[in-house]
Amino acid sequence: MAHMGADRLNRWTGLHEEIDRSTLYWTDQSYFGYANWNYREPIYMSTQECVLMYGDPAKAGRWNDEICGNTAGYICKMLKDETAPAPVPSNKCLAGFHHLNGVCFGVVPVGSNSNTACSDHNGAQFATILSPYENAFLRVLLNNAANENSIGGGVPAQAWLGGVETGGIMSWFNDCFPKVNNIVNFYTNNQEDNCIALNRDGKWSTHKCTDSVQFAACEKRDVPCEKSAPTNSGVCPVGFPDKGIDFCYRIVHTAATASAECAKVTWSEAKDICARAGGSVLTIRTAEDQKIIEQYLERSTSALWLGLYEEVDPLTNRGTWKWLDDTVSYQGSYQNWEEGEPNVLTAGYTRESCVEIKTNGKWNNVQCVHGATRGYICEKLKIPSTGPTGGPAPTVLPGRPTSASEGPIIGTTVAGGVGSESAGSPNSGGLGGGAIAGIVISVLLLLPAIAYATYWIVKKRNGGVFPRMSVSYSRDRSSDKAAVIDENNDSFT
Prior knowledge:
CATH topology of the largest domain: Mannose-Binding Protein A, Chain A
CATH architecture of the largest domain: Roll
Number of strands: 23
Number of domains: 4
Protein name: Macrophage mannose receptor 1
Pfam family, one: Lectin_C
InterPro entries: C-type_lectin-like (IPR001304), C-type_lectin-like/link_sf (IPR016186), C-type_lectin/snaclec_domain (IPR050111), CTDL_fold (IPR016187)
Shape: globular
Number of helices: 4
CATH superfamily of the largest domain: Mannose-Binding Protein A, subunit A
Helix content: 10-25%
Largest sheet: 8 strands, mixed
Keywords: Membrane, Receptor, Transmembrane, Transmembrane helix
CATH class of the largest domain: Alpha Beta
């Protein structure tokens, strides 16, 4: 798998079905005792199938059954020739380092000073892992290093990586954008557990940076990595771990895992989910926002909902594209529509009033009805350590919606079609935020008047004098003792 990353091509393996479709077997007759199916695979069909391995990063290394007559790349293998001379190593890498797609990787023992474990090797750096292929490659190198140093398979051999996890946010020392995150327990109880190490199984774990780890994973890159986009200062709210410029994001996507199915929701459901978390479905305001989101899209295998929708005027039946933060998407504002989008349908067809962002970053308008589901991206404003006056900063921008009341008219058709169904438009029934605030302020202003009126009513009923309380407080200074006396209950003192 480590050598598949250059072209992202799917490749045939030697696993396929018998003609009777009752058994899977390897072409070399090896025992079929290990499987790595993609989620919801295999899907049994009426024709004989063969098994390929995905090359796409989001599903890298997972298997899928396909009709054997389809075309794909392939992987061949043969036994090593023990009599053949050893291959001459290339000069691309230092001794002990190995080349993969423009990067020289090495796993070296950690000496007395772990900080210089990599730089001692001709200025190498601690490794960053930017794809599943690099992760698989370094896993092989770590296991080889463990075996060479007589560390058995049951011993948790690990190698430091060049990254940290801080407050739920992962970053690399060299500021490369973290396209891959394989930390097993992302949130740790101990705040000092923030340096990242690679385990023998390919997973990552966090440790105190002063802990002892046997190895260091090192690299020398021929081509500079893609850097994280510059962002403004501020702290990401809990539950929104991915940094943007002014906002942080929570990206719920459909990856190749069993839990991904529940991530697919309708546009209206995504709007409600984000609002309940104190945020909103993503608004892309600038080309810089778009670039950051495209970096995060590499984790997803399908399109995700945007907070962009079409608001239709019921009188003219003309639509206006608006974001959920109440800004209008007009000709001069930033847009990244797929070619030919947004498309306008003819009479009788349901309008495509919701918008998705594809894995290539392009926008596409789709129908909001008929149970259309996608993953989604929630955004929430960053929290500075202090606001302009030294206090907490606001959690929303002025004028930004704090509820899920906004939304498109779901099911609207172009003139000549069937009727429409509201899915929570901005003018739907119910009290708005301003009306509720007015009621609260009015009640607060009336409270002093109510208290004053109550005082004079009670006083008038008692002949202008308030009744004496039946409970009194007494203190004997000579004995320095105190007592509470109830005149209606002689037994209570």
